[in-house]
Amino acid sequence: MKKFIIPLLTAAVVAALLLGCVPEAAPPVTPPVTPPPVTPPPVEPPVTPAVGCTPPARTPPGGATSWVGTWDPETYIFEPVRTGTATGVPTAEPEGIWDGFAVKPDGTPYHFVWQICCMGMPWCAASYGVAESYFKRAGAEVTMLDSDLSIDAELAGLDDAVVKGGVDAFMLLPIDTVSLIPKIEEITDKGIPCFSWGVIIPGPALVASCARDYVALGEAAGRAFAEYAEERGEPITVYELWGMYGHLDAEQRHEGLHNILDEHPLVTVMESGECQFMAPLATDAIITTFSAHPEWDAIYDMGNMAAGVIEGLRTIDRLYPIGDPKHVFVSCQDASPEAMTGLKDGYVDVVTPHSPWDETDVLIKAIFHYVILGQPVYRHYNNSIYPITPADADNPLVWGVAMNMGIPFDDYPILHMPEQIETPTLAMRMELCGY
């Protein structure tokens, strides 16, 4: 291209010289003055609000190396475990300790799903009443799923909650602990932590569980029957009222009772049919059995059936207070309203606690530590086993007494149980999460 441009330029210059048409030089152009650059004032970077604490990787407390820890399928013992050491009824935390605790940095509430096997059971209804009130006071939302003793309804309800989304954790009290394991694994794989209370669900899928050592509960009842027989110095027959066949906590209570009594020379244990932890079924069983065996003189209420025990004995004219020669020795596993009334009136001899209040309390604290504060928790919490005595018959911190007094769940205090679990606080949230 250059060989064409150069001749053209040469011809143009020659023509201009011959014709005298060379233009005058242009006047010098003063370049514009460029003002110095203006440095803008520094802009403060936007403040990123805290996003809360991230639940930890599966790292347990206590120096253990594995979150899942160990699980013995024969004994259902988990590690690491925190076992309560209280010797009596818990005390109360200050009022308002959880106000606004379960609110995220953006002001939205945490959302928890509370799945329960049957709201028709007083124990379950009380547990949810406590949970709903605790969550409400902390500013959280809670959805309750009542399976009404239907495994199909249980699984469908959990599926529906997962599909709807927005769930920060599941709390589970299943009908059949084993059948729920695949569903728990499925939920956990979606990144939603699962917890259980009241029962121990086998396997490693749960973050944490809270219950009592049900074998130890049964053993405590067994020792009471043994002591009673030894004080009398003559044989007794204990009628064991079954909850649910195959239900882990029922099986373990049964195991504990028989650990103590099977070899005892003064005690014979006779088992009922399945009463499903339902008082009316217990009433029917007692009427039928004690009418046929009037010589039997002791009853083991595996749980939640004290009302049925008292009504059954009353119906067949066997309800007499402690000290009467016709008295039937009664051990109740739950400090239910009916059990506490029976204890106060002298119809119930022994109550060992399987309280929906303190077990729910410990579970929610573990959830708050893990989900909100991002702190590791124990694999399992064994709540303390302590005797409920006639001196506790009017203590409003016993759930059965609180129910009998008509105390609203919103007036149930957060319990103070430092030997079991530390109560999470707003100060902890500020220190750990920055809000």
- The CATH H-level homologous superfamily of the largest domain: Response regulator
CATH topology of the largest domain: Rossmann fold
Strand order of the largest sheet: 3-15-9-8-7-5-6
**Share of helical residues:** 25-40%
Question: What does the largest sheet look like?
Answer: 7 strands, parallel
Beta content? 5-15%
The strand count comes to 16
Low-confidence stretches: 1-23, 41-51, 57-71, 73-77
**What spatial form do the alpha-carbon principal axes imply?**
globular
CATH architecture of the largest domain: 3-Layer(aba) Sandwich
Question: What's the number of domains?
Answer: 2
CATH class of the largest domain equals: Alpha Beta
Radius of gyration: 35 Å
SS element count, helices: 12
Order of helices and strands: HEEEEEHEHEHEEHEHEHEHEHEHEHEH
Class from secondary-structure proportions: alpha/beta
Query: What do the pLDDT scores average to?
Result: 84
Outline the structure in words.
The structure is a single chain. The chain is built from 12 helices and 16 strands. The protein folds into 2 domains: 71-212 and 355-389 and 410-433, Rossmann fold (3-Layer(aba) Sandwich); 214-351, Rossmann fold, CATH 3.40.50.2300. It is 36% helix and 15% strand. Helix 2 (122-138) packs parallel to helix 10 and helix 5 (214-232) packs parallel to helix 6 (248-261). Helix 9 (337-345) links the parallel strand 13 (329-332) and strand 14.
